[in-house]
Each structure stands twice: as structure tokens, then as C-alpha cells.
Design goal:
The complex is a heterotrimer of chains A (154), B (292) and C (768). The relative contact order of chain A is 0.16. Chain A has 2 domains: 76 residues, Ubiquitin-like (UB roll); 66 residues, DNA polymerase, domain 1 (Orthogonal Bundle), CATH 1.10.150. The model of chain A has no long low-confidence stretch (mean pLDDT 97). Chain A has 5 helices and 5 strands, in the order ββαβββαααα. Helix content of chain A is 32%, strand content 18%. In chain A, strands 2-1-5-3-4 form a 5-stranded mixed β-sheet, with helices on both faces. Chain A is globular, with a radius of gyration of 15 Å. Chain B is an alpha+beta fold and 292 residues long. Chain B is built from 13 helices and 15 strands. Chain B has a 5-stranded antiparallel β-sheet with strand order 4-5-10-6-7. Chain B has a 5-stranded antiparallel β-sheet with strand order 14-13-12-11-15. In chain B, helix 11 packs antiparallel against helix 12 and helix 12 packs antiparallel against helix 13. The model of chain B has no long low-confidence stretch (mean pLDDT 96). Chain C is of the alpha+beta class. Chain C has 3 domains: 158 residues, Aldehyde Oxidoreductase, domain 4, CATH 3.30.365; 198 residues, Aldehyde Oxidoreductase, domain 3 (Alpha-Beta Complex), CATH 3.90.1170.50; 231 residues, Aldehyde oxidase/xanthine dehydrogenase, molybdopterin binding domain (Aldehyde Oxidoreductase, domain 4, 2-Layer Sandwich). Helix content of chain C is 28%, strand content 24%. Chain C has an 8-stranded mixed β-sheet with strand order 3-5-1-12-9-10-11-22. A 5-stranded mixed β-sheet of chain C has the order 7-16-15-14-8, sandwiched between helices. In chain C, strand 23 and strand 24 form a beta hairpin. Chain C is globular and about 90 Å long. The mean pLDDT of chain C is 97. Classes of the chains: A alpha+beta (154), B alpha+beta (292), C alpha+beta (768). At the A-C interface, helix 2, helix 3 and helix 5 of A face helix 1 and helix 17 of C.
Chain lengths: 154, 292, 768
């Protein structure tokens, strides 16, 4: 059951032949080599596979690739600009928010969604906005702190 | 890769109905957070799917000239929570939906999907039951309107016939105007969890007297249920702590929670009582969410 | 001790790679011609496979091979991430095969399919018919020990291991006879799971030269290599194990879980690469767990509160296979004796018991979360009964500096407990709060509680402690650091780099640590467990770095015609010791070592260090909580862990470790448990919705503090830190519940329903 879809992936228009049974996770990882998109559970309960779809953080393990036709997809591979990490990425690095790192692309994606909304958030709102991602290493503390810091910067 | 045997993708209601008619055994997939999981588990492995997520006309929230509010079944929970019409008139519905799953799930999972999978734990379910939501079910041959209370027919079962699609969720003006409301979800975790008990309370107050009262629960019975006994008991009562407590206790006559490894009957009954009592008391004291 | 790089919060070596997706985990590197495997897991809990019909699966398009216990080349092998023992009596029990016809738990590995893709393999599994003969099963350790219970492993009487000891100058009965009071508690902790975010995943292939290569998400590459050699009866030199970046382990990958199976598979596929990537559901219920343990604890106390005699019987539910054998329940015994040494005598008896639950093995802190919960709850129960301040009771009885452990022979050189307790008291405003929260009656009650622990660093004297390090200096004065010790997310790469930089005298940025541990390249080390690496591996790095520094200064002294003894290194420069003057750069000397026409001899060191010491680490936790009496929900007002792990090598990373440990302990305290259907033995909650790992919203703001005595046996004054953070928090929360309500909760988890039931039993609330 093959089908061609066209999506903008990290700023580049890509036409990909997919199997309609594939999740977007499958296609991003296996066809486009975007391995930051991690599979932690396959059922939308961990958040490790989240990417930005038209600017909104969504779990790709339970998102059919076919739905991405015509969408703008962004992963953490596309956040660096001119060799510089994005403010969210930099805050995660500097703030010690990263340990094993498996959940981190997902957190960076959801934090980036917040950052791009250009609103101000209380710590409680940040916590809620990131609460769709599980992490076993960090107790979330430094992830929240790093996100808060990234949101404070212009 | 999912074990799917056929897949059609509709972009209009008409197209979807056509596909459903052509292949009556096919299942509707909305945002997928239920259907894809069931396919992976094996419960729906090999399913024929009709995807409706690209039907833009099902993603709107509107208030008609009569003041009835129409919620498109593909409205996702983030949209529901942030929508100005919902915020103005049904804030407790948005707030309740905001307790469902986690943010990435709410960014896509739809209110229609939440209703049609028939789960008693659906976080929009008890509020919609309280609101007496009217569901428009459309097939190529027929369109019918069913109150949500009748739509739920059993655990995981709904009155959706082959070839039918949920096309509108209507909250009638008389069902929301003048009410204050609150949804309380009690789950083991505060995010990404299913309710141990979900409790929706709506009240219309005349000073300190309860003029109208609606109460519904999720996970207190095989489907989300209203509480006629407690509602009748509450009407006309003055708001006191004792009365709030008494109403909560009365609700036990309306429900039939079960013992499972996820929670005991006794514990669920405790929550049924406490959540209603506290919600009533909070609403009585200006808390909760109200129709502005 | 003055350090330049040690102790600094330098940024992790791999952080940028991990926020950009450049970090490559096992699944991210698959070769293009990969085959995929899925495992058929038993749908009974205990029994025998009588027959397997694979014909329909084999006939399916896309299926290349169906493996059964009857057609694979796998012998028995042990799985524990322990060093090999030369003494056959001390070797780990070799009770597993890559697939089994004897089912011992629900989900045991019965068959496997190799196919062109995962979906095909998954579908083919459904076409395999298995006929079982069922046997009675046991989910409870003491049930499995009953007379007449069917043996899960033949000849075992369902005992994996058993040990008993008595220490003290007085007979244990006499010691209890001298006590003014005797307190007894039955305490129980539940089995829980690691839930590292990356599931177990491995793939294997055979290179053109006939060597087997396994790429695996493991904490123990060198041990995995040895075990695969045992399983396939293949020379160890023919096997190469590569560990890429790994997405967490917490002990679950301190067992050899998937490597023998993928090795068998590629052998059967003529060396074509085969991958096995576990589903989350399999990972939760079919890999390893933390032992559930039931404790029968008894303490004889003098009127003044001093513990005179202590006795403990512990039953550890080891699940279906030996894995780590009796090591964990054995370690519980050592800890029971050490943290609060009794004045007269201590007696311990521990059992590790085979049951038909998921296999229990190593999970962060190896038995100590269990015993610490039991001990700390018991101590608070005693304090309550005797009406003594629980902190005072601790101060009176806890172990002190200079204590010589009669079981292990280890002497405690440094002990931060007095400072830890002091900090905890200040943090909580203990004296005021304990009064303020006495005798509450409302729906919402508050309480304060604390707990302490002791924790060995690495495994000496129980096991061998050996670690290797290789340092090669590059032309520009930077270095390559290669180790068998593994980075698993804890920050090993970073702190080892700090150590090398510190000792060689170069900037941290000039150290490159190879995070992929490749047994062809990495020096021997047994891997990441027992909070051992910064202590054992650290000693190896220091030894190698000192050698490199010595070679550097030797060359510099010849080149500069200066006395070697007058020279030192500092921040990448060669300096004169007397006036600090820079006389050359390390880079100048390094370049010379490569290209000097006459004396070229690159600067490198390749060393092994062994450790025959143990610096005992300490810590504690303090909690202030609020309980909703009617729902049983706990909210946190304040929560801190305070650790004595000796010198803190990197404060930012250390805080992160502590936060993670606290979060894991919160789950242990309040929500996590492996549940089984009592009628069928089937796991009930092996998914991330039903297994209640704390989410961000469940995790309060976490505070961390350190006391830092310089531990003389640590290479940089350091002691264990990786595991200890997950030890004390659960007990501190439990003790706060006791203080708030007067209710002794002697079981975990204290989820809302459990607390509701306890409060109901205590008559604190009315029934619905």
C-alpha cells in the first residue's frame, strides 16, 4: 500500500514514498534518517518520539505517515542555525538537563513549541506543558529549569 | 508499521460516508490514539480503516443563532481548552479535556474519538453527559440526533451503526446557560493517566440555594453516568458543607463502580463521595468554572 | 584537597550530541540489510512446552527462520553482570538458554521469528502453535518455599540462595534478653522495574573474517562478550561487543538479556545482521525487576534507646531465574548490620527464592532501597513506641567514623552522617515542625520525616574490582581516553575526562572520551554497576594520567634542559614549580613526541587498576508532606536528599544524579509496583500507562545538598554516588506519613488507595 507524500522536513521539501501502514516515526527514522525521533513505547505514553508538526508537538509513533502529507515537520536535527544550537538546546546543555538523553529530543521539541509561541509561562505552566514526556534519569528538575531559562531569553 | 489491511483517507464528510458504505466492516480512525493502539495490541489487527483526520469541516467550534454550541468531533483537546467560545460558555468542558493524557496527545486526540471509543474513563465523557450533549450521527442515507446518555450502550460500546459518522456535538443553550461547573479527575498520576474516578458537577444557583443540579461520573459505572437520585435530592437544598457531603453520599445510589486491580470498589466509592462534595463546596464558594 | 577541574560543573561531553540527535543509540545505526526478530513469549506462567508447530509461520512470506528451543545452538549460560569467578563454586548459576522449553514465568521465551521486517515477524508469531503442560505456579516467595511446592528449578527446593550470620560478642538470645524492650515489624517492599527509556535492543552480524559482532545497549560490554562466549561455546577472541550511546540502564542492562539470542540468530542466518528490539511491554515484564522483599525485623532496645540486639529474616522474591543469584539479598544482610550496629549482637538470615514472577536482579542500589526502607520505617516505629525523637534515636545508634565492619573487614574512614542529620534538621525546621504537626485532626494533615543510609562503593571484598584505562596524547596536547567503564547516561565520560584533565594538567576540553565501548578497543573493565566506576575506573584513569604526565615532563626536561623535578603542568602548559613560569606548552612537547627525528616516542599509557578498599558512602532524605486523609493523596511541601559521596566530581552532574534517584524513589514510595493476576500469573500493568512511573506533574521541586569529606581510598576523594540517591527518599516520605497521622505504613507503595485503607483501618476516616 504505497503512496507518495510531500512534506517540508526541517525546512526542506521532501517527497517520500511511504507505506500507508507506516507511522511518521517509521518514515522519519527509516526513510529520512532522522534518528533523534526515538521509540520508547510505541503507544504515545512516553513522548520520546515527539516532533513539531506545523509547530505543534505530537507523538509520531501513533501518527500515520500519510497524515503528514502537506505538513511542516521539524525535529531537533533541524533546530541548529549557522552551527549554533537553538536557545532551548543550549539551555539544556548548559543547565545539565541531559543525562542518558533518550527522552531529550522530545523534551526539546515541546520546549521549542512553547518558545515559539512567544508567550510568558509560569513554572507550573511549563511543568504542565512538558508533562507528556517521561524521563527516568533527571527527576525533571533540570529540564524544567533549562526550559524556564530558554523561555526567559529573547 | 501497523497491521492495517486497507486504508482510505477522506477529506470531506461525504467522501468518508462513501468509503464507509463501500466497506461496511471498516473502522473510522480519527486521531488514532485509540485505534492505532488497539491495532498494535492485536485487538484490531488487520483492520480496514477510513481516516477522517483531514476533514477540515469537522474541526470547528461555533455558536449558532440560537446560542447552541457546535463542537466538531475532530476538535482536539488543546483546541477545546483554548477556544474562546468554550472559554466563555463551557470552561469546565475545556478544563476537563485538559486533564486528558499529556500535551502531545491533547494536541491531536479528538473529542469525537473520546466519545466514540465508549470508554467510561473518557475525560470529556462525564461533562458531556452532564451537558446532555446531542450527537449528530450521519450516514449516506440518514441523519439522526442522539443524546449522549443514550449513545453509550455499554463498556466500550456506543450506538454507532455501520456506515455512520459522528458529525456534530451540540450543547444546547438551555443546557449550559447560567450554570457553573467543574470536572475533577482523580488519577494516580497528575499527567498521562486514566481516571480512577472522574466527576462532573454543574449547578445553577439562586443565592445559596441549588436551583438546578447535574452530576455525572466516569469509571463509576460501565459508561459515564448521570446521577438522577443525587440530582433530585440536591435540587432546592441550601449550600452548606453538610448538604454538599450529603449529596456526595447520595450519589452512591446512582453508581456501580467495580473492583479491579486498578482500584477497589470501596476506594472508588470514597472518591465518588469526596469529589462531588468538594466540587460542590468549591463551586458554592466561587471556585470552579462558569458560563461567563 | 585543591583541584582545578574536579568538582567543576563542566558541561557533559555528550550533551550537544544528545540535544541535536547526533548521538547514536543502538537502533540508530542499523546496517541496511537488517533482518528483524520477534520473540514468542509463553502464555502460561509455569509449565513445559510439549510441542511447537512452526509450519504455518515458516510458510509466511517474508519469514526467514523460526527458532525454537529444539533447533538453536545455545547452551546454558548465566546472565548476571558479575565478574567471572575462577572458583566454580562461586560462579553465577547458568540456568538460561536463548529459548526455553521449560516455562518459568508468563512471557518466558519460547520461540522466535526472523523476518524481513518487524511487522512480518510479529504476524508470524501468531501462526506458531504451542502445546503446554501446565504446572502450579507461585507468585509469593514464602508460598514457593512451602512443603510440597513444585520445584521451578530441579533440585533447588526453590531456594536460589540462602545465608545467615551472627555478629557480636554476645549470643543473640542473651543479647535480646538484656534489652528493656523488643520491637518487631513485618515490612514489605514491592517488585518494581527500571523503565529505562531505551528498551533492550541489540543486533548481531558476522564479519568477513568470521568474527561475531554484537551491537547492544548494555552496561557491561566485556561481561556480555564473555557470556555470549559461554552461551555459544565460541572463543572469546572471536566475539566483539560494541556499546553505542545508551538510553539508560539502572541495572536492567547489567544483565545479559538479549545478546545471546541475537548471536544465535545471526549464526543461523549465515552472519546476516539480525536485530531484536524489545517492545516496552516485554521490557517491563520480561527483562529484570527489583526484588520484592518481605522482612521480619526485630530489635532489642535499652531504655535509653540504644539498640542492643537486632535480628532480621528476609525473603527476596527472585522470580523465575537466578540472574544475580543471592547477591542482592546477601548485600541486604551486610547493610542491615552496618547502618545501625547493635551494641551486643546482630543476626541475619536471608533467602532468595525462585518464584514464577519476572526475573529479579540488579536495579539501582542493589537491595539497599529495600533494606533502607525496612530499617528506617522500623526505627521510626521504635521511636514512636518509645516516644523518643526519631532523629535522636538515629544519632544514638547510627554507625560512626572508624567503625570496623566485622563482616567485610572494611573500616569506615569518613562518615558524613552527623552532618547529614544536622542539615536535614535545619532544612525541615525539625524541632518546630514536629511540635506544630503533633496531634492533628483535620482532613488535610502535614508531617515531617527523615531517613538515612550507608552504601558501599563498588563491590570489594565480595568481588573482584578491576578497571582499565588507556590514554594517548595527540600531536596538539589533547588526549584520547579509552576505557572499558561505560557511559550509560550517568556522566561517566565527563567525570573521567575531568579526572584525566586534572591529573595530566590540561584543560577538560582537551580530553576526548570514546563513548562507544568496543571490546576490541576498550581496555578490560567489568562495566557500569555498583556505583563503582568513578572509584575503580577513576583509579585507573589517575594511574594512566600520572604515567602520561610523567612521560610528558621527562620529555620536557630533556627538551628544555631543565630538571624534571622542577617542572609541573598547569592548564595545558609546562611550568616551573618554583615561580609558575610557563616554559613550554603541553602541545609543544606532544608534537615533539611524534616527530622528533631522533627521539620520537608518542606519549601514552595503558594501565589496569585493581581496588581492594571500600569507601562507604552515606546519605539521607528529609520530607515535609501534606496528606489528604480522605483520598490518601500525598503532596510535597519540601523534599531534599543530602549525600556524603566524598568529593563531588561535578556538582551539576551530581545534582542531576540525585534528582533522578529521588524521582525513582518517589515512584517506589508512592506509585510503582509490578502487578500480576493472582489467578493466572499474567503481568497486569506492563505498559507505561499502568506502570506508574512518576510524570513531571507528580515530581515536586527537588532539593539536593552534599557534605564532602575527602575519602582517602577514593582516587579523588570520591565515593559512590550513582545509586545512593534512590535509597532514602521513600522511607523519609513514609516516616512523614507516620508523623502526620500516627499510622505505621509498613508496605510500599503508599499509593492513594493503600493509604486510604490504612487510614480506614486506623479509624481516622469513615467508610463510604
Amino acid at each position: 500500500m504505497l503512496k507518495k507524500i510531500t512534506m517540508t522536513v526541517n525546512g526542506v521539501k521532501r517527497t517520500v514514498e511511504i507505506d500507508v501502514r507506516e507511522s511518521l516515526l517509521d518514515v522519519l527514522r527509516d526513510k529520512l534518517g532522522l534518528t533523534s525521533v526515538k521509540q520508547g513505547c510505541g503507544v504515545g505514553e512516553c513522548g520520546a518520539c515527539a516532533v513539531l508538526i506545523d509547530g505543534v508537538s505530537i507523538n509520531t509513533c501513533i501518527y500515520l505517515a500519510s497524515w503528514a502529507d502537506g505538513k511542516e515537520i521539524r525535529t531537533v536535527e533541524g533546530l541548529e542555525q549557522d552551527g549554533k544550537l537553538s536557545s532551548v538546546q543550549q539551555a539544556f546543555v548548559d543547565g545539565g538537563a541531559v543525562q542518558c538523553g533518550f527522552c531529550i529530543p522530545g523534551f526539546v521539541i515541546s520546549a521549542t513549541e512553547l518558545k515559539e509561541k512567544k508567550q510568558s509561562y509560569s513554572r507550573e505552566e511549563i511543568r504542565r506543558a512538558l508533562s507528556g514526556h517521561l524521563c527516568r534519569c533527571t527527576g525533571y528538575q533540570k529540564i524544567v529549569e533549562a526550559t524556564e531559562k530558554a523561555l526567559e531569553e529573547d | 508499521m501497523y497491521d492495517i489491511s486497507t486504508y482510505e483517507e477522506a477529506t470531506t464528510i461525504q467522501e468518508a460516508l462513501q468509503y464507509l458504505k463501500e466497506n461496511p466492516s471498516s473502522k473510522v480512525i480519527a486521531a488514532g490514539s485509540d485505534v492505532l493502539i488497539k491495532i498494535r495490541e492485536g485487538k484490531m489487527a488487520g483492520a480496514s480503516l477510513v481516516s477522517i483526520i483531514k476533514i477540515e469541516e469537522l474541526k470547528k467550534i461555533e455558536k449558532d443563532k440560537d446560542g447552541n454550541i457546535h463542537i466538531g468531533p475532530l476538535v482536539n483537546f488543546t483546541q477545546l481548552e483554548e477556544d474562546p467560545i468554550i472559554r466563555e460558555h463551557l470552561p469546565y468542558l475545556g478544563q476537563g479535556g485538559g486533564t486528558m493524557g499529556g500535551p502531545q496527545l491533547r494536541n491531536i486526540a479528538s473529542i469525537g474519538g473520546n466519545i466514540c471509543n465508549g470508554a467510561t474513563s473518557a475525560d470529556s465523557g462525564s461533562t458531556l453527559v452532564c451537558l446532555n450533549a446531542q450527537l449528530t450521527l450521519t450516514s449516506l442515507d440518514l441523519e439522526r440526533v442522539v443524546p449522549i446518555g443514550e449513545f453509550y450502550t455499554g463498556p466500550g460500546r456506543v450506538d454507532l451503526k455501520a456506515g455512520e459518522l459522528l458529525t456534530d456535538i451540540v450543547i444546547l443553550r438551555q443546557d449550559y446557560e447560567g450554570y457553573v461547573g467543574k470536572y475533577t479527575k482523580f488519577a494516580q498520576r497528575k499527567s498521562m493517566d486514566i481516571a480512577t474516578i472522574g466527576c462532573a458537577v454543574m449547578m445553577k444557583l439562586q443565592g445559596r440555594v441549588i436551583e438546578d443540579f447535574r452530576l455525572a461520573y466516569g469509571v463509576a459505572a460501565p459508561t459515564p453516568v448521570r446521577c438522577p437520585v443525587a440530582e433530585a435530592y440536591a435540587k432546592g437544598l441550601t449550600l452548606t458543607k453538610e448538604n454538599a457531603r450529603a449529596i456526595g453520599e447520595k450519589a452512591l445510589e446512582d453508581v456501580s463502580p467495580r473492583d479491579s486491580w486498578r482500584g477497589s470498589k470501596a476506594y472508588r466509592e470514597q472518591l465518588i463521595k469526596v469529589l462531588a462534595e468538594r466540587a460542590i463546596w468549591e463551586l458554592a464558594n466561587g471556585g470552579g468554572e462558569q458560563d461567563a | 584537597m585543591e583541584f582545578t577541574t574536579i568538582g567543576k560543573s563542566v558541561v557533559r561531553k555528550d550533551a550537544a550530541a544528545k540535544v541535536t540527535g547526533k548521538a547514536k543509540y543502538t537502533r540508530d545505526m542499523e546496517p541496511k540489510n537488517m533482518l528483524h526478530a520477534k520473540v514468542l513469549r509463553s502464555t502460561i506462567t509455569h509449565g513445559i512446552v510439549k510441542h511447537i508447530d512452526t509450519s504455518k509461520a515458516e510458510a509466511m512470506e517474508g519469514v526467514l527462520k523460526v527458532l525454537t528451543p529444539f533447533n538453536i545452538p545455545s547452551g546454558n549460560f548465566p546472565t548476571a553482570g558479575h565478574p567471572f569467578s575462577l572458583d566454580p563454586a562461586h560462579q553465577d548459576i547458568a540456568d538460561r538458554k536463548a529459548l526455553t522449553d521449560r516455562v518459568r514465568f508468563y512471557g518466558d521465551e519460547v520461540a522466535a521469528v526472523i523476518a524481513v521486517d518487524e511487522l512480518t515477524a510479529r504476524k508470524a508469531l501468531k501462526l506458531i502453535d504451542v502445546v503446554y503442560e501446565e504446572l502450579p505456579f507461585y507468585l509469593d516467595a514464602e508460598e514457593a518455599l512451602k512443603e510440597g511446592a513444585v520445584e521451578i528449578h530441579e533440585g533447588s527446593k526453590n531456594i536460589t540462595g540462602h545465608n545467615t550470620y551472627t555478629v557480636g560478642d554476645v549470643d543473640i538470645r542473651d543479647a535480646f534478653a538484656q534489652a528493656d524492650y523488643i520491637f518487631e515489624d513485618v515490612l514489605e517492599v514491592q517488585p518494581v522495574q527500571h523503565v529505562q527509556m531505551e528498551n533492550h535492543v541489540a543486533y548481531a552480524y558476522i564479519e568477513g573474517n568470521g568474527r561475531l559482532v554484537i551491537v547492544s545497549s548494555t552496561q557491561i560490554p566485556h561481561i556480555a562478550r564473555r557470556v555470549v562466549s559461554q552461551a555459544l561455546n565460541m572463543p572469546i577472541s572471536n566475539i566483539r561487543v560494541i556499546k553505542p550511546i545508551i538510553g539508560g540502564g539502572f541495572g536492567n542492562k547489567q544483565d545479559v538479556v538479549v545478546e545471546p539470542l541475537v548471536a544465535v540468530m545471526t549464526v543461523m542466518m549465515n552472519g546476516q545482521p539480525v536485530m531484536y528490539d524489545m517492545d516496552r511491554e516485554e521490557n517491563i515484564s520480561c527483562t529484570r525487576t527489583r526484588h520484592g522483599v518481605r522482612f521480619y525485623m526485630k530489635t532489642g532496645v535499652r531504655k535509653d534507646g540504644r539498640f542492643l540486639a537486632k535480628e532480621l529474616r528476609a525473603y527476596g522474591n527472585g522470580g523465575a531465574y537466578a540472574a544475580h543469584g543471592h547477591s542482592i539479598i546477601g548485600k541486604i544482610g551486610g547493610n542491615f548490620y552496618r547502618t545501625y550496629p547493635a551494641e551486643l549482637a546482630t543476626k541475619y538470615e536471608g533467602f532468595t527464592v525462585y518464584t514464577n514472577c519476572s526475573v529479579a536482579a540488579a536495579m539501582r542500589a542493589y537491595g539497599i532501597p529495600q533494606i533502607a526502607f525496612a530499617t528506617e520505617a522500623h526505627v521510626d516505629n521504635i521511636a514512636k513506641e518509645m516516644n523518643i525523637d526519631p532523629i535522636k534515636l538515629r544519632e544514638m545508634n547510627m554507625v560512626k567514623e572508624g567503625f570496623k565492619d566485622k563482616l567485610s573487614g572494611v573500616t569506615i574512614n569518613t562518615c558524613g552522617l552527623p552532618d547529614i542529620v544536622k542539615k536535614a534538621k535545619e532544612y525541615l525546621h525539625w524541632d518546630e515542625k514536629i511540635k506544630e504537626y503533633a496531634n492533628q485532626t483535620g482532613e488535610i494533615r502535614r508531617g515531617v520525616g527523615m531517613a538515612i543510609f550507608s552504601y558501599p562503593t563498588a563491590t570489594w571484598p565480595v568481588a573482584l574490582e578491576i578497571g582499565g584505562a588507556r590514554i594517548v596524547m595527540n600531536q596538539d596536547g589533547g588526549v584520547q581516553l579509552q576505557m572499558g567503564a561505560t557511559e550509560i547516561g550517568q556522566g561517566a565520560a565527563t567525570v573521567f575526562s575531568q579526572m584525566a584533565a586534572e591529573t595530566i594538567g590540561i584543560p577538560y576540553e582537551k580530553v576526548n572520551f570514546e563513548e562507544f565501548t568496543d571490546t576490541d578497543i576498550a581496555p578490560f573493565d567489568t562495566g557500569a554497576y555498583a556505583s563503582r566506576q568513578s572509584y575503580v575506573g577513576g583509579k585507573a584513569v589517575k594511574k594512566a594520567a600520572l604515567e602520561v604526565k610523567d612521560k610528558l615532563l621527562t620529555r620536557a626536561s630533556v627538551l628544555l634542559s631543565l630538571e624534571k623535578g622542577d617542572l609541573d603542568t598547569q592548564d595545558g602548559q609546562i611550568i616551573r614549580k618554583d615561580n609558575g613560569q610557563q616554559v613550554a606548552s603541553v602541545a609543544d612537547i606532544a608534537l615533539d613526541s611524534y616527530y622528533n627525528y631522533h627521539t620520537a616516542d608518542t606519549i601514552a599509557a595503558d594501565v589496569t587498576a585493581t581496588v581492594e578498599t571500600n569507601g562507604i558512602a552515606f546519605g539521607g532524605s528529609a520530607a515535609e508532606i501534606e496528606i489528604d486523609m480522605r483520598t490518601g493523596r500525598i503532596e510535597f511541601l519540601k523534599l531534599i536528599n543530602i549525600h556524603d559521596s566524598g568529593t563531588i566530581l561535578n556538582h551539576m552532574l551530581a545534582e542531576g544524579q540525585v534528582h533522578g534517584g529521588m524521582s525513582m524513589s518517589l515512584g517506589y514510595a508512592l506509585s510503582e509496583v509490578m502487578l500480576y493476576d493472582q489467578k493466572t500469573g499474567k503481568p497486569l500493568n506492563n505498559n507505561l500507562l499502568d506502570y506508574k512511573l512518576p510524570t513531571l506533574m507528580d515530581t515536586p521541586s527537588l532539593d539536593v545538598s552534599f557534605v564532602e569529606p575527602y575519602e582517602p581510598t577514593g582516587p579523588y576523594g570520591n565515593k559512590a554516588l550513582g545509586e545512593p540517591p534512590t535509597v532514602p527518599t521513600a522511607a523519609a516520605i513514609r516516616n512523614a506519613v507516620l508523623q502526620a497521622t500516627g499510622v505505621k505504613v509498613n508496605v510500599l507503595p503508599m499509593n492513594p488507595q493503600t493509604l486510604f485503607e490504612h487510614f480506614l483501618d486506623a479509624g481516622l476516616i469513615e467508610e463510604a
